[in-house]
Design goal:
This protein has 206 residues and is an all-beta fold. Helices cover 0% and strands 63% of the residues. It has no helices and eleven strands. Strands 1, 2, 3, 4, 5, 6, 7, 8, 9, 10 and 11 form an eleven-stranded mixed β-sheet that branches. The N and C termini lie close together (9 Å).
Length: 206
């Protein structure tokens, strides 16, 4: 499970539409464009599909002007198709903003996942501040549509706890960081909390 609670500043690219799900519920849908930093420098334009239920549209229903700059808050979901990551958002609030407000995505990330095979090591960064890097992955979707998404983590800590063993299940929270590298969107997180995680039998395997 990967879930991000975010604030997005973007531009309306496709005016809001009223749609109906296969289950019969009606919802508003709008496409916005925002920016994500590139590792090589500069920024990359990226599209986010935004939805909100018709019974509680939270302002999404008013996003009818293409080119309008808006801010949205809500839950960001990641979807992997082949090797590419895409983003969708369940909006909880939406409103227009001034054109001077910079585009971008900011927020927090929560993940239940499995540590990779490499053990993290503590190193010293700037000002001799210790930190550790590690990667973990989570399974998203069900059945044949199930995919695995990796997240890179950095944690400022002076020691590696005993629960950090290869393939360990972890619960991790922190600050979301998105970046493009060689045309691929990557997810990173600056860790604020990490703990071992016990999976229940009903949960799909990682």
């Amino acid at each position: 499970m990967i879930k991000a609670e975010v604030s997005v500043v973007g531009t309306v690219m496709q005016a809001v539409q009223l749609k109906q799900s296969q289950q019969g519920s009606r919802f508003y849908s709008v496409t916005i464009e925002t920016e994500v930093a590139q590792k090589e420098g500069g920024v990359r334009k990226v599209l986010i599909g935004v939805t909100a239920p018709m019974e509680s549209p939270v302002g999404v229903e008013r996003l009818v002007n293409v080119g309008q700059r808006v801010t949205l808050s809500g839950t960001l979901h990641f979807r992997k198709v082949q090797e590419n990551l895409y983003m969708n958002m369940s909006a909880k609030a939406a409103a227009p903003v001034e054109e001077t407000i910079p585009l971008g995505v900011s927020g927090t990330l929560e993940m239940l996942g499995k540590l990779g095979s490499k053990m993290p090591e503590v190193r010293e960064g700037k000002n001799n501040k210790p930190f550790m890097n590690f990667s973990a992955f989570s399974g998203e979707g069900e059945g044949e549509a199930r995919t695995y998404i990796w997240v890179r983590f950095v944690r400022f800590a002076s020691e590696v706890e005993p629960f950090f063993v290869p393939k360990a299940l972890l619960s991790i929270k922190g600050t979301l960081e998105l970046q493009y590298f060689k045309d691929s969107l990557s997810i990173s997180c600056r860790v604020s909390e990490v703990a071992p995680y016990q999976k229940t039998e009903k949960e799909a395997p990682f």
